[in-house]
MET27 protein (Aegithalos caudatus), 159 residues
Amino acid sequence: VSPQLHRRGFRCLHGVDGSAGMLERARSTGLYQELRLCVLGKDPLPAPAEHYDAVTLVGALGEGQVPSTVLPELLRVTKPGGFLCLTTRSNPSNLRYKAELEAALGQLERSGAWQKLLAQEVEYWERATSEEESTRGTGYISGVVYIYQKCPVPHLEEG
């Protein structure tokens, strides 16, 4: 994702990963100002509250990967009015996780924590590793891109 963000003018990129090897791979791109080891869903993000204008989590929200319970932590480090871009797959082996994720996304929206701006199905998300995972025999699996905006902190009336 970082090369795409960089091409579009984003220059202050921070990254986390639970794998030292993946962090080294990210470091080799030269696109990140900061990279930290962090197991999402287990460790708190290494950033203060309301620190980032935008948070992305692409390719990690899935069965056996990052639990949907990470969402409040992603919100914690996002500035009020900031954006969160999240993705998940829609292949058969991820449908239970996707339903759980969407329930958690909806609960946070109903609580007023954020507002959904987009939930876009992408038919050709990535190549399928088996025919059973393929969407309608295309050789690909589909996925979803979600974009949310963190709700601003309400202003308190004086007096």
Q: What stands out?
A: The chain is about 25% helix and 35% strand.
